[in-house]
Specification:
single chain; alpha+beta; Helix Hairpins; Immunoglobulin-like; 2 domains; 3-stranded mixed β-sheet; 36% helix; 20% strand; disordered N terminus
């Protein structure tokens, strides 16, 4: 998956893409550590195999006989203990990095603030944060992503601001996502903003990201979901806080205008005598 992601998203083929969010930075660092450890073990094992092939090959008549390995207690105990130590080391390193991958940090200076002046994401809360986080619900549908900004003030009848395909977020703000689907299984993945999160009907997955600089980050549904799976793209556009507020206001106006136009069209085409 990671090797295939490189050419597709313009990055290296041996590791995840450079992170634009702290959780992706931790994922990349953890992957690099385990990759280097695995590479060292691979080189040692392959070098030992090559050495044995040439040292004890059958054509070398009169050469030394290989030492019996079966029943060699010190050797068998040694490689068993070595494997245990290796696995334990990987486990310890992984658990050291997990909090930085799973737990959302506080919204930084210059990020979107709550009405009361409190940062949207707070430390000391179970991940993802509570009501002061900038919450966005991500709904996977064949074949498009819908984003409901439940952290914003609701429209009439409690309906939040929403958008399709392009998620606009403010910089320096911790954004928490609740991810689900309305038809089949999809998978939310923006490689530079963290790991994958499946969108499953009847189940909600959660993740987060925090972008420090303006930019556009491309993603794609990572679960085969039907004929047009390849066209199910998504983009996260990070903008300064002031631009984000302007976008929210414009989005709200456009939604209300579209609702009013739809109501007028229905009324104009209504059959007389019906509601």
């Amino acid at each position: 998956m990671l090797m295939a992601a490189g050419p597709a998203f313009g990055g290296a083929v041996w590791r995840p893409l450079d992170g634009a969010s702290p959780n992706q930075d931790k994922i990349q660092t953890l992957y690099t550590i385990t990759f280097v450890m695995g590479l060292v073990i691979l080189v040692i094992v392959e070098a030992l195999i090559i050495y044995c092939i040439f040292k004890f090959r059958a054509k070398r008549r009169g050469g030394p006989e290989p030492v019996a390995v079966h029943g060699n207690a010190p050797l068998e105990i040694g490689w068993t203990v070595g494997a245990i130590v290796l696995v334990a080391t990987v486990a310890v390193v992984t658990f050291l990095f997990l909090p930085g991958i799973l737990d959302p940090p506080r919204t930084g200076p210059g990020g979107l603030q709550a009405d009361a002046g409190v940062a949207y994401a707070q430390v000391g809360q179970p991940p993802p944060p509570g009501d002061r986080a900038l919450h966005i619900h991500v709904n996977g549908q064949q074949y498009i992503w819908r984003f409901d900004y439940v952290g914003e003030k609701p429209l009439d009848e409690g309906r939040p601001v929403y958008a399709y395909t392009n998620m606009v977020v403010p910089i320096n703000t911790t954004v928490t996502l609740k991810i689900y689907a309305s038809d089949v299984i999809h998978s939310w993945w923006v490689p530079r903003l963290g790991g994958k999160a499946d969108a499953v009907p009847g189940h909600t997955n959660e993740t987060w990201f925090k972008i420090s600089k303006p930019g556009v980050y491309r993603g794609q549904c990572a679960e085969l979901c039907g004929d047009n799976h390849a066209d199910m793209l998504n983009f996260v556009t990070a903008v300064p806080v002031d631009q984000y507020k302007l976008w929210v206001a414009k989005q709200r106006r456009d939604i209300l205008a579209a609702q009013a136009a739809l109501a007028a069209a229905r009324k104009a085409h209504a059959i007389p005598g019906t509601n």
